[in-house]
Amino acid sequence: MTESAGSAESNVEPGLSVYDAIRRRRDVRAEFTGMPIAADVLERVLGAGHCAPSVGNTQPWDFVVVRDPRTLDRFADHVADARLRFARSLPDERRQTFDPIKIEGIRESGMGVVVTYDRSRGGEHILGRHTVDDTGLFSAVLAIQNLWLAATAESVGVGWVSFYDESYLTELLGIPEPVRPIAWLCVGDVAEFQQVPDLERLGWRGRRPLADAVHLEKF
What we know:
Layout: E1 2-4, H1 18-24, H2 39-50, E2 53-55, E3 61-66, H3 69-89, H4 92-98, H5 106-109, E4 112-117, H6 135-153, E5 156-161, H7 166-172, E6 180-189, H8 198-201, H9 210-213
Antiparallel strand pairs: 1-2, 3-4, 4-6, 5-6
């Protein structure tokens, strides 16, 4: 059972439809310009994230905005090491496909938004989480999706970085227990959005047809 966290107040509402934003949304890597985004745009984007539905109305997310170049550099170096470890684990043919794929825009975007999940928020007796504990984590992921679509509507790029050790990011940002970082999002101005997602365009994996994903009555 989920409830909305409330409506974000805004004087400007972009005209892009939700369907257009879904189709236009990309995991941005190489297209960041490095130009800062306006404070009111950032507030609207974060506000959209904060409007996400959450199990028991717990709103278990927080947003850590990171702009310090020293922190961006340290995290980028850590991610580069994680990328190298993954590359070394791949078969030769798969590694050749992976090598040209850019996995992050940490420095180029000039800003990270780290989304965290606090399972303890609201206590142990959470309406709707009793039998499926992951609904709390799912709630935080819904906040990420809201944020991402709002950013797309604002022509702001977002790139989700997942090549990192959770303990490293926790220590880097001083995140207290039991809070977990669940996403580093590179957020920033972009020159363009790619028409075809990078992993499709560069041959890593294509998109499944909708018909292959839809099942009637039983799997």
